[in-house]
Amino acid sequence: xxxxMICLTLVYAALAGFVWFWRLKKNAADYPLRWELAVLAGSxxxxxxxxxxxxxxxxxxIMGFGYASVVIVWLMLMLYLMGSFFYRLRGLQLLLYPLSVxxxxxxxxxxxxxxxxxxxxxxxMLHIISSLLAYSLFGITTLIAVLILWLSRDLHRHRLSxxxxxxxxxxxxxxxxxxSMWIGFALLTVSVISGTFFAEEVFGRPMTxxxxxxxxxxxxxxxxxxxxxxxxxxxxxxxxxxxxxVGFISLMLAYVGSKFVLEVILxx
Length: 268
What we know:
By secondary structure, the chain is mainly α. The chain has two domains: 1-120; 131-267. It has ten helices and two strands, in the order H-H-E-H-H-E-H-H-H-H-H-H. Helix 1 packs antiparallel against helix 2 (33-58). The chain is globular and about 55 Å long. It starts with a helix and ends with a helix. This is Cytochrome c assembly protein. Residues 51-265 form the Cytochrome c assembly protein domain. Pfam families: Cytochrom_C_asm (PF01578). The chain crosses the membrane at residues 6-23, 35-53, 65-87, 94-112, 124-151, 181-199, 211-228, 240-262.
């Protein structure tokens, strides 16, 4: 698995360099998106097999910081690949590929401690799947929020950067941000409910207010407030983008951040 992870990291790094090369061109209208997606699809197949075959063969899910990071990278890239057939997502890969390389490197260098769970435990699997999908979707949403802040800064400074020809219009980015946020919010709701109110069925022990629970609930309220205000006032601009990033930071602290601290730094 480490050899495969290194190879995939190199492929994603090459894609990152390829995309940034085109971003620096003044006219990116002839960007070869089909070739990029073809390479990405070819990489996601062994990536998916790498994370799915061991649990299916052993009927056991091995969870740790490294494995969770690899799964989130695969889900985010898969969401981008599928979404590219329905939305104009060009520009998202400027941030997505470098982030994927970072997470893959962290997974290689700091795999962390692993815990085994039976995949036949459907209540636990529902919680894990909804959590990982929510993290991945909100990861995409957060990258879109960063692009919104990037374009907003250029517009505020009346500056035309090469990125303007590469990125979608600002209104399209805002619409995509809230659309993906709605889906992520639904998944996060399932995760929070299953992990909080049905903790005994999912984890085999009563609910306790740990840092994971608190940060998950805080992020849920942040996203709920964002979606509520957007529905009531058509809220747009920098502030919702900033709060989207704050919500994702809180969400990452709930699981991935705490996993990194406990398993990698504190070795627990």
